[in-house]
Each structure stands twice: as C-alpha cells, then as structure tokens.
Amino acid sequence: MENFDFHVTTDIRFGKDRLAELPEVLNQYGKKVLIVYGGGSIKKIGLYDKVMEQLKTNGNEVFELAGVEPNPRVETVRRGAEICRKENVDVILAVGGGSTIDCAKVVAAATKFEGDAWDLVLQRRKYQGGALPLVTILTLAATGSEMNSGAVISNLATHQKLGTGSKSMLPKVSFLDPQNTFSVNKYQTAAGSADIMSHLIENYFKRTEGTDVQDSVSEGLMRSVIKNCPIALKYPDDYDARANLMWASTLALNGLTGSGKPGAWSCHPMEHELSAFYDITHGVGLAILTPRWMEYALNDETVDKFASFAWNVWNVEEKVPMLAARIGIQKLYDYFKTCGIPMTLPEVGINEEKFDEMAKQAIDHSTIKTDAFVPLDEAAVKEIFTACLTESSFE
Amino acid sequence: MENFDFHVTTDIRFGKDRLAELPEVLNQYGKKVLIVYGGGSIKKIGLYDKVMEQLKTNGNEVFELAGVEPNPRVETVRRGAEICRKENVDVILAVGGGSTIDCAKVVAAATKFEGDAWDLVLQRRKYQGGALPLVTILTLAATGSEMNSGAVISNLATHQKLGTGSKSMLPKVSFLDPQNTFSVNKYQTAAGSADIMSHLIENYFKRTEGTDVQDSVSEGLMRSVIKNCPIALKYPDDYDARANLMWASTLALNGLTGSGKPGAWSCHPMEHELSAFYDITHGVGLAILTPRWMEYALNDETVDKFASFAWNVWNVEEKVPMLAARIGIQKLYDYFKTCGIPMTLPEVGINEEKFDEMAKQAIDHSTIKTDAFVPLDEAAVKEIFTACLTESSFE
C-alpha cells in the first residue's frame, strides 16, 4: 500500500425528503444563489419547484444556469462564471447528475480564476485557487461527483474532454435523496451503474500490492451494484435499490477505493475520446470498452487479479485462475448486456474512421502509456477499439 | 436503508514517515501543545523522541499527560483538563491507541465544559459544546477512534464504563503510520483485530433492511482483517499486513458501515460491564462474547443474516442457511482461538460471581433491551455470560 491522504469533508445528507434543511445550509454562505441544472428533467419530476419554494421562502436571490449538457461544455462553464461575477453570487446549487455537478464545480472555480475557463481546465489537477462554495442535490447515481473534487469538461471545438479538479471544488454539502432517481429511465440507470462499476474496476486493477482493504471494499460495492441495478431496472421506484445504487456511486469515487493505489486508469482515457468525438453516453462507452480492455490486459502476470475479480465479485466456482478470469470477464459483459446496454461501438454510431486519431489523443491526454495496470500504447488502444466493433465472447 | 448524515472531516495522513508534516498541522491551532500518551511504549519504539524533536524544532511549548490507562479513567481526564485550562493549551496531540485518543477527546471537551468531567461523560452523545482541537498519531489498529467522534471512559469508583461523544471531539488530523504498530505484541494485535471485527459485526447485525452497500463493505473489511491479522502475528514487521489492519480499523468505525442502520449494538454493552468490573482487555472481552451472542441470536427469523455472514465473510460452502450459519459462528470462534485469544471468561479471571450485577448494568447503560438486533434482557445477558464460562462448539 502506498502513502495517501484521505480528507473528504463533504457533508452528506442522505435519505428521503430532506430539502427543508436546504435554507440553513445555503444561509451559511449568503443569499445570492446560482442554481445549475440540465435539460429540464428536474422540472418534470417536480424537484425544481420544490427547491424554488425553499429558496423563495428563504428570501434567496436566485440566478439560473440551465441546459447543462450531458458532456458539459466549456461554453456553459463560461456562461455560468460570467453570471457569478456579474451578480456577485455567494453560493452555487447544482441540481442534477454528474454532468451538472461537474459543470457547477468548474463554474465555481472559474469565477475566482483570472483567465479563460478552458485554461483552468487545462491545468487539470494542478489548480490551487479558490472556488465559490458548492451545494449539490443529486438526481442520478453514476459519477460520484457529489463527494469528490474532480470534474470533466468537454471542448467540442478542439475534440477534447478533460478531467480537472481542485480541493476548492469539493462540494460543501450534498443532498442524496434516492427518490430523486425514481424517474431515471432504464438506459440512464444502466449507464449510471456501468459508470459506478467502471470507477470501481479502474481503482481495482492497479499495480500496487497489499491493498486488501481498498480491494475488498471495491468488491463489496461492485456486488451491491450488480444486485441492485437489475432491481431498479425492473422496479424503478424500489427505494432500497435506488438507495444502494446512489450510495455506491458516491463511495465508488470519493477516494475510498483508490487511496493508496496510485497509477493511471485505463478505460476512462479511452472513453473520453469516444465521447469527445461522438458525444456518446459516458457510462455506455465504458461498458463497451471495459470487457475488451480486460481481455487485452489479461495475461500470465495479471491473471491473479482477474481471477480474484471473478471469484470475489462474480462468485465464479472455477478454480483454475486463467479460466476463472475469462468467466469473470464474460459475466461482466453479459451483465451489461442484460441491463440493456448496447455492447458494440456501431450500435452507438461509432465506426473505425477516427480510431487512429482517438487512439493518439487517448495517449496524449493521459499517462496510460506508462502508468496503467497494463501499459497501453496507440496500437493497444486501437486494438481495444477494434474489438468493440463486434459482439465478443471471452470464455 | 434509513436516512443518515455522513460528515467525517478528519484529515487522514496515511503512510510511512510523515511526521515532518506535524509542525504545519499543529501551527494551525497554536504553539501550546498537550501531548497525551499511555504507559510509555511510545518511548520504547522511539516515537516519543521523534515527536518531541519535531515539536522542539517547531518552537512548541509542550505539556504532558502521561500514563493514560488501557481503559482510560475519568480521573486522568480531569487531570488533563486541568492542565489545559491552567496552561491555556491550544491543541492536544494524542500519541497512542484508542484509549489514549479517547482520553484526549474527553480532555479536549472537558476543558471547555463547565462542570465535572464525569458529568460530561454522563451526557453520553448529547454533549453539544466545544472542544480543543485534537491531532492524533495512532499506534494501534483497533478502536477507530482516530476518525470518529466517540470515546469510552471508565469510572472504577462507580463500576461504569460509558460511551460519550460529540462532533467537536472528532480529530482534526490523524497520522496513521503502520510502522508504529510493528512493535505491538501478539496479544494486543489479536485483541485489536477482534475489536475491529466486533465493530463490523455490531454494524452488520442490525434490523434495517436494504443496506447492501454498508453490509458488503463490512464483509470486505472483515475479510481483510481475517487475512491480515494472522500475517501480522507471524511477521510483525509486514508493512502491508499492518497497513491493512490499520486502515480497516479506521473504516470499521468512521460511520461507513453503520450509517443508515440505526439500532443498538449487542456485544459492546455487555463487554463494557466486563471491563468496568474486571478491567480486562476490551477486544478480548468482545472476542469471548461475540460467538456466544451469535448462538443466542441465531433463530429462524435471523438465520438469513447469519448465513450471509458465513457465505460472504467465511466462504462457507454449505448451502443450507441454518447449517451454514452455525459453521460461520464456529469459524469466527476458531479464528479468534487461532489468533491466540483466550476464549473463556475464567481465562481472563472472571467467574459467575458478578453476572447478575453486570447483566443489570448492561441493560441499564444501553438500549439493548429494545433496539438490539435480537432484544436482550437481563436473563439473556446472563445466559450469554454463562456460555462464556467454558469452551464452546457451535456446529
């Protein structure tokens, strides 16, 4: 296990009907609030009205940044920061999923940043400056953004989708009411769960030895997702299924499973290129890539980790490590399929045309060539992309 | 899953050789430091000198509260609070295991409390007042006190050992260097691991349904302890084994496995009476009680949870739930025995003489009669105590 810091100060308010606590939370920071949200689903489910009622009664002055995209764009960040500066906003309230929260984080920082918002994103994890305080109300179990300091922003003009973040972007308070995810449709529920699984898998498959705590926590969270996603797909209003997915999404990426295990993630850098070039749903891209990446990464040196994944996550009974490993990969693939996720790139409108360009950028924008579980060069990325063109079988 | 808050702001500095960070941490609060420690083992391992060197170079004015007992006593708390008030101490530095940290927490609060320290303890979890800032350097993987707001204090005069706590008692920063546990002897290593296991088991066996995330995280942490404690017993300097035990101890009781699962713990209230009357090692008392409590609590209504414990924690292959449950309990019992823990009360100097009195107090000092996984009355507690008089077999 490597040295690490764990300091995650977000105040989580988990559970049913806790919006009455919102005014007291916001009043710590001031009365001028920028509410950030996406395409309007929060209006459909009545959440927007409930929030606005609390803000009105509380005497807040409210500004709005609406229409945050599923892969939030730097133009939207710029627009939000402009409002915050012009109106002297005191606190940002993000109401939505990971995209909305990510956008709000970078708005919060860009407001304090002298320079263009994209230059802030280009600092990646090195931004040390301040940010406006951020409060979130989560409506989708997926990215874990509600309890971490990272954000991903897209620049369609340059075909770039880049991770950024700073201590100052960590949400102060996050409201996690599973009821707010009852209306999430099957596709987004499955894609969100695939995103959670991917975060756990990315942290699980690292080179650091002796991390039983992190890995067994990851295994447990994976088992929770595997059990509860199908329940939520069948019974969208099942509170406990939604609650388990929501809390798993938060814990999957709040540092718990990655601390003490340095090294690059493998599938996210590849997926970021798919959605930077084709604007596909992030979780779907990850679901398509992950089993093919696993097949690429499985070899005599890595087999033990893949066998553990098969035994401890999927209860595979096969005792021969290499055979067990392959069964585990197959189970993951089949699971995603059963959840209704399209499992080939052509199904989401992607063909081989830009594989070279995307593979090059995946290497340029990350450290997977040196720091990944199994180092990946351009040829490897292209090989993995190519394997995603057709249905696969791993056993 | 029930509603819960999760807000654990302790800044964890995990890993090797990080004491150079100590001055900067302490300087946030001031120069006058009360260093709190136990029986001198920190001097034997050279940690005391290393800490003092940092404090000296940093120009700290240092006061000492030495000799904190394994079950810290209210008299020691009073002594510490008196020093803090008289010397206007700015920050408390606890160097030791859970007892030392618990004592330091209540010293920190008692300094700000108008009244006797025992009256503060008697407020249990209701104390809302302030406390001096607390920084900890952990030397024993066991109680989890390094990242939570609770403390247990004993009053030998009244035969009381009571839990207390408040938000203000949460450590600000905790240094977790596994190397500081290399010298922990076999007995204390095993007892500490039993304490970790007990925290996980207490949170696991609750009545709340639909808590897969919490439970699967608990299962993972239990598996980590079960794997790593025997390694640490055989190779006391195995860094990864010590690191996994240390991080498991912290996560076992920082809210992660208990949030959303209200209800009383079962074995701790019983054990607190054993150590209040006989001053035995807490973890050993828990190890003795837990399998017997399990046998008492196992019935047709609770069998599913015990079977899950057997399957997911101990990899029991038996498919019949009641049989699997019994095998799981046996495995826990055998595991503690293998770790060298004395598994009967007579071995730690306790006979049936005070069973009635202790059973009565266990009920009086807790809510196990109404809120435990299986409600326990005085007769039940006495039955469990009695089962601890001789070796047991559960299958």
TrEMBL record, chains A, B:
Question: Record's GO cellular component, any one?
Answer: cytosol
* An example molecular function term from Gene Ontology annotations: metal ion binding
Question: Where would I find the Alcohol dehydrogenase iron-type/glycerol dehydrogenase GldA domain in this sequence?
Answer: 10-178
Which part of the chain is the Fe-containing alcohol dehydrogenase-like C-terminal domain? 189-387
Pfam families attached to this UniProt entry: ADH_Fe_C, Fe-ADH
Key words of the record: Oxidoreductase
Q: Keyword Oxidoreductase: yes or no?
A: yes
Tell me the protein's name. Answer: Iron-containing alcohol dehydrogenase
